[in-house]
Amino acid sequence: MGQASVIIYITIAILILFLISHSPTTTKPAHHRHRRLKLRSNFSFSDHSKPTHIPFDPIVADIERKREDKLWEKSQFKLDEGAAKGDESQPEWEDFMDAEDYLNDEEKFNVTNRIVLLFPKIDVNPRDGFVSEAELTDWNLKQSERETLHRTQRDMEIHDKNHDGFVSYAEYDPPSWTRHSDNDSFGYNMGWWKEEHFNASDGDGDGLLNLTEFNNFLHPADSGSPKLLQWLCNEEVRERDTDKDGKLNFKEFFHGLFDLVRNYEDESHNSSHELDDSLDAPAKKVFAELDKDNDGYLSGTELLPIIEKLHPTEHYYAKQQADYVIQQADADKDGRLTLSEMIESPYVFYSAIFNEDEEDEYEDHDEFR
Ligand SMILES: *[C@@H]1O[C@H](CO)[C@@H](O)[C@H](O)[C@H]1NC(C)=O
Ligand SMILES: *[C@@H]1O[C@H](CO)[C@@H](O)[C@H](O)[C@H]1NC(C)=O
Ligand SMILES: *[C@@H]1O[C@H](CO)[C@@H](O)[C@H](O)[C@H]1NC(C)=O
Ligand SMILES: *[C@@H]1O[C@H](CO)[C@@H](O)[C@H](O)[C@H]1NC(C)=O
Ligand SMILES: *[C@@H]1O[C@H](CO)[C@@H](O)[C@H](O)[C@H]1NC(C)=O
Ligand SMILES: *[C@@H]1O[C@H](CO)[C@@H](O)[C@H](O)[C@H]1NC(C)=O
Ligand SMILES: [Ca+2]
Ligand SMILES: [Ca+2]
């Protein structure tokens, strides 16, 4: 009896020692446990610029979408009061609690469990136990495309006046905030909403835009459509073409476009804009490379090679966010993420979405519940 209990005690002691020596140091992640997640609360319904953060988690995206729709409905209701009434079906999140409380209730929304669930959906190409930059970029892109399409769908409800699922040019009524642009001397409106733009979006040329075409209309750089990319390039020329000869001379290029292009080049420049022989040499070089027919001017077509630099695509932002997140969470610095690396730094994925001011991400700024 006594011997047996001694053996049991020794066994337990060994077990405890084993557990202590093998337990991961949990002090660091513990700091992150109580970071309060925030939903993006600030939507601009008329602004088609890129979202600053792509939601990582579809559940969060879904909550944000519902909340955004709700705000949108309210803003529409204010615009045409009396049009819709009585439809009081509320998003389920608002029925039982504030969505943010839900997200911060660790029993209901456990970020560790979420990451365990999402990991195999991201690690797909190839499925090898590592999330690569390309896989995370694809994931981000998918989330961001879904969000974009959802907004387009909502915009379409406004413009498709006869509700046939298509937007005709006549139906498309430019929102008032676009009308500030002055008529230019050529007599055409420099705004986004030209008929040429509409026609370039009309893939099958039936004079109507379906959802896909309307989405391309709103996001030409992401459309992948040669017609729309060409239109976008022509638009760039029009915007910079100060002497109105329909093409860009070196001066128009240097003052309008070169800054945007060279941000992506790996050169260090002085930011002087003086047309000085020594300072504009890099600009002259780029100009000469783009000027394929050597006529001393750039046409819309000649801008095609740099249009992605002028209008970064959703893919560009998706990759940028993937790079940032990997850099933050990649503990062993092999350039890719394992499941345990992701679990160790869950709020890198979530705070990249929620925190409006990214610089404040240190522990002393944490909000405790
Ligand atoms: C939205 O954000 C901007 C700046 O980010 C701020 O000036 C504005 O007040 C916010 N609007 C609402 C409704 O919170
Ligand atoms: C989240 O779930 C994991 C695994 O199921 C569990 O170990 C952890 O304690 C949970 N976290 C919280 C804060 O409830
Ligand atoms: C633009 O031109 C239209 C007619 O083509 C005219 O009605 C409108 O007042 C002009 N707007 C400006 C800002 O000049
Ligand atoms: C757009 O296409 C329609 C035919 O679908 C045509 O009548 C119109 O002139 C075109 N407009 C422009 C600016 O190309
Ligand atoms: C819209 O029309 C295009 C052809 O221009 C077609 O490829 C696409 O599938 C259509 N999209 C929808 C949602 O019907
Ligand atoms: C930038 O200007 C400084 C002096 O203003 C000069 O010393 C330097 O060489 C210039 N750099 C380049 C890349 O031209
Ligand atoms: Ca993989
Ligand atoms: Ca219609």
UniProtKB/TrEMBL annotation:
It holds the Pfam family EF-hand_7. GO terms for molecular function: calcium ion binding. Keywords: Calcium, Membrane, Transmembrane, Transmembrane helix. SMART domains: EFh (SM00054). One of its GO terms (cellular component) is endoplasmic reticulum. InterPro entries: EF-hand-dom_pair, EF_Hand_1_Ca_BS, EF_hand_dom. Residues 195-224, 241-263, 278-313, 317-352 form the EF-hand domain. It comes from the Eukaryota. This is EF-hand domain-containing protein. It comes from Daucus carota subsp. sativus.
